[in-house]
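hey
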């Protein structure tokens, strides 16, 4: 707690406490002043211990109206490290990502290359091996500030796969088995634009309340051009109230952002799910909004979007 006080004073309030072993928004608390820090610290450590068995937390400067940008990396035990471009994960609710895309729209090319170089160098210096994602928050001046590293493949790795034409799961297995990376950075060609929507068994009209039940109908848009669907469910599958509410992921790829967005909208329109409420209509509303189309949003977008009636 004493160290937290020192760090908070140095970086300046507001600050964010985050569980060291956490993810998905668990074990996170905001302190906007020195008087709020003790309670935030106590609550963050307690939730971290309950959720992850590890009470350790770290502290960072809170950027409230930023963009969430991350770099997909892969490294082998022979010092070879490559990246597969960046992803924008700004559309999120309570730190839970809803829509991801690559490349990050509006990111300055020089800042992009600077961040790639820093992420690759960081991996080399710490001797990292395997798949990983370095995450950053983009401030209002457009600068990316390091936030954390996820030492695993994330849900949204599929948008990077689509653009790079690489099977990241296969590459991770090869690296884990002691092989060298099967490609160099020069061989990785990032093509077009990709967008992913997470389809959850949740009801956005009721505060994203989880919606367990039986999938009476499940017909994903498998035949649409530029569309990939990753799922573990089928018609008749029972959504449990005890686990993650993710039903499937839809990934759309196009030559540019507008084509990817149009293909995603067509896929969402054709997707038929009955038996439980889902987030399909919410995704359609977000992708059709002027804020998304014009790339005029930040991490506060979703609360404001629903407060305005989804306009």
């Amino acid at each position: 707690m004493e160290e937290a006080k020192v760090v908070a004073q140095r970086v300046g309030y507001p600050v964010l406490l985050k569980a060291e072993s956490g993810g998905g928004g668990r074990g996170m608390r905001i302190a906007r002043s020195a008087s709020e820090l003790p309670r935030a610290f106590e609550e963050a450590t307690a939730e971290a211990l309950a959720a992850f068995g590890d009470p350790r937390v770290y502290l960072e400067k809170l950027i409230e109206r930023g963009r969430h940008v991350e770099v997909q990396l892969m490294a082998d035990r022979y010092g070879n490290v490559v990246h597969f471009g960046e992803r924008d994960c700004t559309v999120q609710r309570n730190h839970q990502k809803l829509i991801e895309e690559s490349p990050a729209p509006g990111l300055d090319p020089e800042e992009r290359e600077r961040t790639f170089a820093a992420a690759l160098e960081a991996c080399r210096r710490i001797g990292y091996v395997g798949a990983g994602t370095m995450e950053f928050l983009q401030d209002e001046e457009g600068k990316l500030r390091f936030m954390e590293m996820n030492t695993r493949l994330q849900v949204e790795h599929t948008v990077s796969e689509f653009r790079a034409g690489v099977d990241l799961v296969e590459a991770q297995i090869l690296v884990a088995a002691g092989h060298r990376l099967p490609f160099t950075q020069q061989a990785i060609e990032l093509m077009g634009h990709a967008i992913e929507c997470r389809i959850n068994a949740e009801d956005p009209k009721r505060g994203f309340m989880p919606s367990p039940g039986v999938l009476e109908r499940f017909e994903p848009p498998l035949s649409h051009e530029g569309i990939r669907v990753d799922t573990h469910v089928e018609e008749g599958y029972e959504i449990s109230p005890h686990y993650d509410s993710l039903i499937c992921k839809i990934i759309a790829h196009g030559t540019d952002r507008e084509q990817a967005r149009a293909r995603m909208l067509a896929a969402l329109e054709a997707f038929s799910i009955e038996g439980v409420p889902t987030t399909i209509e919410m995704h359609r509303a977000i992708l059709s909004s002027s804020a998304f189309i014009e790339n005029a949003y930040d991490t506060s977008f979703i609360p404001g979007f629903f407060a305005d009636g989804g306009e």
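Residues 72 and 133 are 5 Å apart (CA to CA). The chain has three domains: 2-61, 67-187, 193-307.
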